[in-house]
Amino acid sequence: MAEADLLTIADELYGLTLPDFTPARDAKAKELKGADKELSAQVKALKKPSVAAWVVNALVRRETEQVDQVLAVGVALRDAQAGMSGEELRALTRQRRQLTAAVTTQARRLAGDLGTKVTSAVADQIEATLTAAMIDEGCAQAVRSGQLLTALSATGVDAVDLAAAVATPDALGFEASTREPEPEAKPDLHVVPDPEADAKAVKAAEKALAEKQRELDKATKAHDAAAADVAELEARSMQVQAEMDELRRKLAELESTFEEVEEELSDAEDVRSEAEGWQTAATEERDEAATALAKLKR
What is the DSSP code (8-state) at residue 95? Predict the structure, then answer.
């Protein structure tokens, strides 16, 4: 019963905004101290999640359909890997990258709505966690629990140690409760038209345009650099290919020359053998003539 109570309490706490987590956890531990000291200590020991983990936890609760889609693609991807379906695997890999990028963008927007700014570094951790949930079943369970403490990373080869990645021992297999964003309270105020509203709107639009232009300039610069790298490598590839073709041609010529030399060597060895026979016979005849001459001179 205590384990179930801890899961329920953790589910509630990890669904709060990041600044509210620690005060709410401490208040809950204090509330439980008189009735259940062990549970109180367990609640007090719950760790505050990292920003990336908190965003993923919030995404699980408030954008459940998006997360379910991510996990479903992950199941299909793992099945394709197991079945060695190359074409399907490549298509799912492309879909995985597109989906994780899109959901990460949605997660950043959600975090902003909840009052927490997500940096590019944290966004990379969020995307890595979503990718890990796709390629590793255990990571998928950790994400679905809504009790992540840290960002996840997986290669798909080695098993991921999730003991320190989730808040409670029984988090894996637990599904976080979903919740709708709470509507903001709107005070009953009389709206007074802002005489500078148009000018402010123009200024804000100009600022937004300038920011988008800077982003476009950065993207264009990155694209041009990447295109230059591609062109250089393509030229290098063609050069290496030409060199390989030339080496193959030379190798073919050398092999042909080697065969001709081998034939000539064989013929030369035959001629040498015949010459050696003639030489031996001539030597014997000379020796016989020298012997005959010596007898005559006696």
Answer: H
Q: Which DSSP helix (H) or strand (E) runs through 68?
A: helix 64-83
Residue range of the domain that includes 260: 199-298
Any domain includes 194: no
What is the rounded distance in angstroms from the CA atom of residue 224 to the CA atom of residue 55?
Answer: 34
**SS3 at position 81:** helix
With respect to residue 284, please indicate whether it lies within any of the assigned structural domains: yes
Residue with tokens 């944290």: 122
Residues in Cβ contact with 177 at an 8 Å cutoff, skipping those fewer than 6 apart: 11, 15, 61, 146
Model pLDDT, residue 193? 57
Distance in angstroms (rounded) separating the CA atoms of residues 15 and 249: 69
* Segment 92-129, tens digit of pLDDT: 778 888 989 999 999 999 999 999 999 999 999 999 99
**Same domain flag for 171 and 210:** no
Closest CA to 56 of 69, 47, 46, 67: 67
- Count of Cβ atoms closer than 10 Å to residue 63 Cβ: 19
Per-residue CA distances from 229 to 3, 223, 268 (Å): 56, 10, 57
Question: Which tokens in the block code for residue 60?
Answer: 């699980």
How far does Cα 229 stand from its chain's mean position? 22
Same domain, residue pair 13 and 142:
yes
pTM: 0.58
